[in-house]
Amino acid sequence: MKRSDAEIISEYGPFAGVDSVGGVTYDGEQVWFAGGDTLASFDPAGSEASRSIDVTAHAGTAFDGHHLFQIAENRIRKIDPASGRVLATIPAPGAGGDSGLAWAEGTLWVGQYRERKIHQVDPDTGTVLRTITCDRFVTGVTWVDGELWHGTWEGDESDVRRIDPATGEVLESLQMPVGVGVSGLESDGGDRFFCGGGSSGKITAIRRPKSRTGSP
């Protein structure tokens, strides 16, 4: 396994009215994050939250190119970002113990925190298609350039790691500074990961290593 320190690019927040940041996603322009009672967004070129949707948002957040998906307790809600309307709801595989959420190859990928698992889920029915077992608590989850990455957070230690999607083997680890946790994770499709910071109320952008060949 390749291990290195995470390179901090920038930091956002804390945001007014937000006590904790859960899931994080990116729609190509705005970073969306779970802020507890709201799903809020901001332009990463700026710093202040610019939009918010009144929906329970404690854990993972994802974007499929058209819609937002948000974990709320034991459910995953599909949301129209323009109107804020909830369009559909499916069960979350962890029955309330869910954490990260990502969209890739037409399916949702859901972290199950204390069970140390990542589930691939049918976005229409909630059916679990397959499960990957990890060796640490799973927080945020993201796919980028055929690579599966997830955040971890245990005690004061947190990292962002690339794993083999077939075996769960850890291939690479980006160690976060002591005291900086990762509650949510999303790639911008380029050289950045956006990391939710839990009760700090902040989001940290770190450098993503150069892409390697692979596929989900």
TrEMBL record:
**Gene3D superfamilies associated with the record:** YVTN repeat-like/Quinoprotein amine dehydrogenase
User: The organism sits in which domain of life?
Assistant: Bacteria
Output the SUPFAM superfamilies linked to this UniProt entry.
YVTN repeat-like/Quinoprotein amine dehydrogenase
What is the name attached to this protein's record? PQQ-binding-like beta-propeller repeat protein
Source organism per UniProt: Rhodanobacter glycinis
